[in-house]
Amino acid sequence: MKKTVVLLLWIFLYSSGCHFNNEKRPNILFVISDDQSYPHTSIYGTSWIKTPGFDRVAKEGLLFTHAYTTNAKCSPSRSSILTGRNSWLLEEATNHVPHFPEKFTTFPEVLQEKGYKTGFTGKGWAPGKAMIKGKQRNLIGQVYRDIKLDPPAIFISDVDYFENFKVFLNEKSEQQSFFFWVGGHEPHRAYEYEVGINKGNKSTDEIDKVPEFWPDSKNVRTDMLDYAFEVEYFDQHLVKIISELEKRELLENTIIVVTSDNGMPFPRIKGQVYPFDNRLPLAIRWGKGIKNPGRVINDYFSFSDFAPTFLELAGITEEDHEMEAFSGKSWKNVFHNLPDENPREYMIIGKERHDVGRENDQGYPVRGIVTKQYFYSQNFEPNRWPAGNPETGYLNTDGSPTKTEILNLRREGLNSNYWNYAFGKRPQEELYEIEKDPQCLENLAGDESYAALKNQLQNRLIKDLREQGDPRVLGDGDVFDQYPYSGENVKNFYNRYMNGEKIETHWVNPSDFEK
Prior knowledge:
Helices cover about 30% and strands about 15% of the residues. The protein has helices at about 1-15, 50-60, 75-85, 105-115, 160-170, 195-200, 220-245, 275-280, 305-315, 330-335, 400-410, 415-420, 450-470, 480, 495-500; strands at about 25-35, 60-70, 100, 115-120, 130, 135, 140-145, 180-185, 255-260, 280-285, 295-300, 345-350, 365-370, 375-380, 430-435.
């Protein structure tokens, strides 16, 4: 009888996920800023931004120089992180502000099922709606946002990320492993103008170079410093979080990942498809698990790699979960300083519908391929405006002093080049030699001397997407335009706006409208 009871207890513990040894399984801390571009941390060499938290993680772990999201916008980028799948394979979740499909399980849901305590603070998966069987679904874990603070600038979030993380740790049992997501709202717009100068003690002279697709003016440099102030603010929370883990003797067995979801909220970057938009900062620390820390990893890392990596390191095999097949791969070998048996030679990136601002809720579909030397992209609907229709104020880009200056230069007949870079229509194909032209300003797609290379990159791109099952290249791309927005205020925005309806939305800056 006693043996039978023991056996039944063992079966129960195994089936409930408790068969994993929590004491040996690593904790996972995922720290993600909102709209921060590579290389905007000090360890990457950006002198006008100071990030001691990020730098410590990189120095005591791994620093990645070619980390890419497959889709550079909040919702689709975060969907790829959570599912381990390339963005174009996520149905509605390929778009921004979507309904998250019930069929896709997230890795935090699996971790929770297998015994991890899970939670998040700040911004989780958003914006969009996630429901399951008619009820609200939390894709990451329990939310911790109750503790507030007095933010140092007007538009910075009042959520105290650090103190809310401490509440989470206090609720965790001593032997239980945890997954916690720290989602900063910074450096997403809006910014308090001149906060970088007035409160950050910065000078516009500190910026060594302004990207060539923006005017080099005091106004633009000030805007960049206001962005830098918010990057540094979020990093200060990371510094305190690391110290708390150290104090509780949890640091060495915690995998700390620090990254961002998409590029900075400036014209020609956020929501677009260029390497500058999709390439993001990434540092990973794991005291007990990373061999020979301090390494710089130059191989391509995809955001679809996070899920398979975390589950393998947590000892969860494919047989232990019901997630859809991963597009990404585990980086366990690289952590252990072993050779990567299948290093990527290139990255594929793309987008469908980002935000609002076109007739009938249309998107701007793009797919691109990035190699160390070249970037090739195909714009499937070149007749559409890439950043939203001019009549609606370019709703794919956040309002900013930089954006306003670009629009004013064109209105006044002084310079249209910056406007064309940020908002103008684009040809069906683009090709850039990014070693010589990292900002992708000189399109070589029409140059006959590059024709063979262009065809080679195009064939590789389309072949891979076909094998993956991307609807866009299989003749069913219109499905992405047909998925409804989850937010009522953005549904059919263009038509409603053109009919004179007054619509309240944070995307609109009336002074930026093009009439």
